[in-house]
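During the reporting period the student researcher (J.K.) took over the structure-prediction task from the postdoctoral fellow and processed the backlog of single-chain submissions. One of the processed entries is reproduced below for the supervisory committee.
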Amino acid sequence: MFFLFFTATSLQTHTTSLNLLISATDNMVFSAPLRILLLCLLHFSTRAVSEDVDPVILQRIITRFHQNLGLGQYTVVFRVDRNICLENSTFPDQNLLARVTNTVQSNGVYDEDNLVAAKAYPNQHSEYRLRNLLGNILNVPNQCVVYFSVNSPCLTTCLSNGPYNIQANLVGLRNYEGIKALAFRYIWQHDDKQALKNRLNVIAPHLPNYLCVINTHRCDPL
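J.K. obtained the following C-alpha cells:
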C-alpha cells in the first residue's frame, strides 16, 4: 500500500496531467483499485483548486471595510493569501483601512498591486472607475480575490453591452486561478434578483456570487 500527498498548489499543477492520463487510458485495461485511485486524485485535485471563500470570513472582512468607508456606493477589489479567505484574521488592518478611506472619501482611486478602491463619482459608477486596474490583482494565481461592491452591479449600465460595462472585469475574475468571489451588500434597487442572477450567469458562468446583508453572520450565495 502507498500514499500520495499533494498541496493545493501541487494538485492544481497535476490536474491537467491527471485529466490527460485518464483520457489516454480509456481504452487500456487497469485493475479496478488503480482506476478508482486515478479518479479520486482527479476529484480531490479539482476540489482543491476550486475551493470557495468561507462565507463567515467574507462577511467579517466586508464589515470592516463598511464600518470605515461608511455609507454610499463604493467598490473594493483585493487579493490576499488564500488562508485569509478561509480563516479568521485581522485583514484589513487599521493602517490599510485608514489609507483606503482617506483616498476614497477624497474622491480619489486607491490603487495598489493587491487592492483597488473607489466610490461613485458624478457620471461614473464606482465599478467603472476600477475597470482598468485589476491586472495586477488577477496576475498572481493561487490566492484569493474578492470583488466587493456595496450595491450589485446594475443591469442597465455595468452589466449591459454599453460603453460603461464591466463585463471584462467579471470574466477576468471568473477565470482567476484561485479562490474568488463577487460580493455585495444590496441588490441595486432598480434590479430584480432573478434577472441579476441570470445576467451574471451569462457574463461569468460559475463565478461565486454572494449577498452579504448587513448585520448578518455570513454571506449567502446569490
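The committee noted the following: The CA atoms of residues 68 and 94 lie 9 Å apart.
J.K. will present the remaining backlog at the next meeting.
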